[in-house]
Structures are given as C-alpha cells and as structure tokens.
Write a structure and sequence with these properties.
The protein is mainly β and about 210 residues long. The protein has one domain. Strands 1, 2, 3, 4, 5, 6, 7 and 8 form an eight-stranded antiparallel β-sheet that branches. A hairpin with a 4-residue loop joins strand 4 and strand 5. The protein starts with 5 loop residues before the first strand and ends with a strand.
Length: about 210
C-alpha cells in the first residue's frame, strides 16, 4: 500500500528552511543526480551502463506482462500480485520460492542487485520509502511534492542510473490500477543557471531483485 502524493505551493521566503543532507552546494543538475546515491541507492552508476529498455533477459517477459496490464487491476489489486503473477506466468521464481509470504514481510523476488543498477523487469521492494522534492523558480515561488511507499512492490520500466526510476505499480494509491510513474531517490540540492533549483530528500530502504528462472 502507498500513500497519495501530498502537493503544496507557496513562496520560499515564507517557509522556514529545513536541514537537508546535501552532498554539495552549487552543483550542476548532472552532478546532483550522480550524487543522489546514498545507502539506499549505493554507488553512482554511469547512465550508459544501465539498460533503458528490456532486452532478451529474464526481465523482458516480466516487464511485458506488467505493460500489458497497464490501466487494469491485476488479480486482487494488491501491489504484491502484479509482481507475483508477472514472475510466475513467465516461469520465474517468486517471493514464495525464497521464504514465507506474510502480509508485512520484506519479500525477496530474485537475485539481489544494487538499486541504481536495476534493469527493466527487475522487481523493487519498498520499506518506509519517502521522497520530498521541492522545485524552486528564480522568482522564489516553489512547488513541493512528497511520495511515500511504506510497504510496497513495483516493477522497473527504466532506470537512468542517476536516481530516477520509472516503475509499473498498482494499489498506489490504494485501489488504483497498474500505473506507470517515475520515482525519485535523490538527496541534495541542484541549482540551475536560470536561478531555479531542485532539492530532494529520500529516506527508507528499497531493494532491487533480478528475476531468476525456476
């Protein structure tokens, strides 16, 4: 289950500053992205080494299953079910092959891989994930969005290797169908040449798993 994003707007001058774990000041957007990795993401990865579309790999049929379900509710609508069915229907091991499945377990879905090296068709398992992103314009106005996934499962569509991963998921928010969206995992502030900036703060644990055949 995941909470509905909370969005607010206003001006930076009227909001008390919040301490952030910024890797560096006055970095470029590209540097900010590469510094996004923390204990959740692991070491930064060159975007050129990360697949942006499924290849002839165990993840390809898993991703296709999820893509075919886009806009619909798969099975009982739980986030677990989308990943479970995508794996089982394609001859892959699922969570029950790695241990007991209980409602609040931290499921294992395959071979563990670093989050920032996850590829299309890999499965993500979330525990207490929360990301707050604030975009500030040069005139001082800002927009802030917070996304959280307390206990959740999703399938990777693409990964830019810089802390931004597109996923397919359902039941986020509760009752929603299979939906594609980008989730962010940055920590820090990036300032742009036009005077605008983006600040991100991420917490929680997200584990990535590569599908394994039975």
């Amino acid at each position: 289950m995941a909470s509905i994003p909370n969005i607010s707007t206003g001006t930076v001058q009227t909001v008390a500053p919040t301490p952030r774990q910024a890797p560096a000041q006055n970095v470029s957007p590209a540097q900010f992205a590469s510094q996004a990795a923390d204990r959740t993401l692991g070491a930064p990865t060159n975007v050129g080494t990360v697949q942006t579309s499924a290849t002839a790999d165990t993840g390809a049929p898993v991703l296709k299953y999820a893509q075919d379900k886009k806009g619909t509710v798969d099975g009982n609508g739980e986030c677990f079910t989308l990943a479970d069915e995508a794996l089982k229907q394609n001859g892959m091991k699922s969570a029950s092959d790695y241990g007991r499945v209980t409602p609040n377990a931290d499921y294992k879905w395959g071979k563990p891989v670093p989050l920032n090296e996850s590829k299309p068709g890999d499965v993500l398992q979330f525990r207490n994930y929360e990301n707050t992103t604030r975009d500030t314009k040069a005139d001082g106005s800002w927009n802030e969005e917070t996304n959280s996934r307390p206990h959740h499962t999703a399938i990777v569509v693409s990964n830019d290797g810089k802390g931004n991963i597109t996923v397919l998921e359902q039941n986020a928010p509760e009752g929603s169908p299979v939906t594609e969206r980008v989730l962010h995992f940055g920590n820090g502030t990036a300032k742009n040449e036009d005077g605008s900036s983006q600040a991100q703060k991420t917490k929680g644990v997200i584990k990535a798993y590569h599908p394994e055949p039975k």
